[in-house]
Structure formats: structure tokens, C-alpha cells
Design goal:
The complex is a heterodimer of chains A (131) and B (163). Helices cover 52% and strands 3% of the residues of chain A. Chain A is mostly helical. Chain A has 2 domains: 76 residues, ACP-like (Non-ribosomal Peptide Synthetase Peptidyl Carrier Protein, Chain A, Orthogonal Bundle), CATH 1.10.1200.10; 49 residues, no CATH class. In chain A, strands 1-2 form a two-stranded antiparallel ribbon. In chain A, strand 1 and strand 2 form a beta hairpin. Chain A is globular, with a radius of gyration of 15 Å. Chain B is α+β, with helices and mostly antiparallel strands and 163 residues long. Chain B has one domain: Thiol Ester Dehydrase, Chain A (Roll), CATH 3.10.129.10. Helix content of chain B is 21%, strand content 35%. Chain B contains 3 helices and 6 strands. Chain B has a 6-stranded antiparallel sheet with strand order 1-2-4-5-6-3. The chains are: A mainly alpha (131), B alpha+beta (163). At the A-B interface, helix 2 of A face strand 3 of B.
């Protein structure tokens, strides 16, 4: 059953308000989860649980959020930046995120900025409506 | 001081739900400071009691293989105070359980009245904090917690639900 993009965004926003305890108006499309909304790793798990319930889908955690296993692996990270191998792996895991800007300087410190409310809406959209 | 905030289990359905009892007693030292002349069980300790009830439930569901630690208090709403002489009934239900984490919903009752509603999230730290080292032995489920569950399981009067 297809859901409109609008409806998806509304549900995603509600989920983030519940999970992160932020106000509705703070959850804009461009808001970063970690920077603007203060999400931490346990919050990612909470968000995944709630999204799974709200949309009736299964979400492998590493598809949606910063993959800690990857970030701690020496093959993929060197001197605080992602290696070419790391970048390729990350892109494959998260096709819904736009890595163009990040690819120019794959500084790990900049990684959290990629995770915006919009990327969750995109992910759910492609997941729910592709089926 | 022993850090145990539930007295015994009265129900235990492996992987699903559990109920435990906590008797609030004037013999508890901290009550004399909280507050002088008006002892009440601190809400933080009620949350801890729920965390212990549900933490053991979650741990047992995965055969105590994980080090289960409280990671997030999603909700903690209280409707009334808990005073010395009160017997609190803490009921916890697993809402979600995966390899890395668990989410539970709980209620605290005193008699018929619901005095607290608590939702918690636990993290299975071996699976989550990749790269950090933890002691091999399970320091979360110490003898005290394990014996609480044992007493329940071995008591001929309690109805044991098989896992």
C-alpha cells in the first residue's frame, strides 16, 4: 500500500518528537539528528524501533544510521577520515544519503551532519513505496 | 548498602513480562533524609526498581549472554508518592528485543492505584560499543540479581512459566 511522501514526513516527524523529546517546530527537513536534535546512539535504536512499528517494516540499523562497526575499523578509517574503501562501503549501505559533498573531504567529524530528517523520510519513502 | 530495589518476583514469563514487589520500609536509611519528617521513596529509585525488574527480564530472555545496561529513560510519569509501609508492584513488559537493545514498558502500582508509568531502553553493550573493552564476566548480572530470579523459579508456590 503506497503512502504519500507528505504522510511519511508527518509520521517521521512525530516519531522524532517522541523519541528525542524535541518540539515539533525543531524537526525541519534539514535539521541534523545529532547536531540540531541532540540524538545519541541509543536514540538511533529507539528511532528504528518506532519507525519499524509505525510503518510496519524491518529496518536494519546500519542502513539508517552511522555504522559504529565501520567507523572503528582500521580498513575503513585512517587519520580521522574515511578511506576510499570505507566510503564505498558506506555508500553501498546507505543509498538514500547524498555523499557528494562529504566525498570531497570524508572527515569523520563531518559525518553526523549527513544524517538529517530528510534522509529518514527518503529512506522510508524508498522502502515502503518500492515494495 | 546493597543496591537492590526489588524484594521478590511474583510473576515471570520468559521473554514477555514480569512482575516484582518492592516493600517501602522506614528501615531504609535514605528515607530519613528524603525528606526529614516526610519520608517518600525517591522517584529515581522507583525508576531503578523498574530497571532492575525489566533488566532481569531482558537479560533472562537472552540467557544472560549480554551485559544489559540501562541506556535511556524514554518516559517516567508519576501520579502519586510511595511512602513507608506501601507495597509497590512493578510490572514490566518487553516491547521490543533485538540483539543490540531492548525496549520495555512498565507500570508501578500501589494497591489498585497506578502510581507510575515508566518506559526504558536497554543497551547490550558488547554489541554496541564496538572497540571498547569490557571485562569478560557479566558484571551486570551479579549474584544478588541472579538469586532473586532463582528464588522465584524454585519456590513451589509460585507458578513457573517455562521459557
Amino acid at each position: 500500500m503506497a503512502i504519500s511522501r507528505e504522510e511519511i514526513c508527518i509520521k517521521v516527524r512525530e516519531t522524532l518528537v517522541d523519541a528525542l523529546g524535541v518540539d515539533d517546530d525543531e524537526v525541519t527537513d534539514e535539521a541534523t539528528l545529532m547536531g540540531d536534535l541532540g540524538a545519541e546512539s541509543i536514540d538511533f535504536l529507539d528511532i528504528v524501533f518506532r519507525l519499524e512499528k509505525a510503518f510496519g517494516i524491518k529496518i536494519p540499523r546500519e542502513e539508517l544510521f552511522p555504522p559504529e562497526n565501520l567507523l572503528n575499523d582500521a580498513h575503513y578509517v585512517e587519520n580521522g577520515k574515511l578511506t576510499a574503501e570505507g566510503l564505498t562501503k558506506l555508500k553501498a549501505q546507505m543509498p538514500h544519503v547524498d555523499f557528494t559533498e562529504f566525498s570531497r573531504d570524508p572527515d569523520l567529524n563531518k559525518l553526523p551532519d549527513l544524517f538529517r530528517v530528510k534522509s529518514i523520510c527518503d529512506y522510508i519513502d524508498s522502502n515502503v513505496n518500492a515494495a | 548498602m546493597r543496591w537492590i530495589w526489588i524484594d521478590k518476583f511474583v510473576e515471570f514469563e520468559s521473554g514477555k513480562r514480569a512482575a516484582a514487589i518492592k516493600n517501602v520500609s522506614l528501615a531504609e536509611e535514605h528515607l530519613h533524609d528524603h525528606f526529614p519528617g516526610y519520608p517518600v521513596m525517591p522517584q529515581s529509585l522507583m525508576i531503578e526498581a523498574m530497571a532492575q525488574t525489566s533488566g532481569i527480564l531482558v537479560g533472562e530472555a537472552r540467557h544472560f549472554q549480554e551485559k544489559v545496561i540501562l541506556a535511556k529513560i524514554t518516559k517516567a510519569v508519576f501520579h502519586a508518592l510511595a511512602r513507608p509501609g506501601d507495597q509497590l508492584r512493578l510490572e514490566a513488559e518487553i516491547e521490543n528485543l533485538t540483539e543490540e537493545a531492548a525496549a520495555i514498558n512498565g507500570t508501578i502500582r500501589c494497591g489498585e492505584k497506578v502510581i507510575g508509568e515508566i518506559s526504558l531502553m536497554f543497551s547490550h553493550i558488547d554489541k554496541n560499543l564496538a572497540g571498547m573493552e569490557f571485562p569478560e564476566e557479566n558484571f551486570v548480572f551479579n549474584e544478588q540479581f541472579m538469586s532473586l530470579l532463582q528464588f522465584y523459579l524454585e519456590d513451589p508456590e509460585s507458578s513457573v512459566q517455562s521459557s
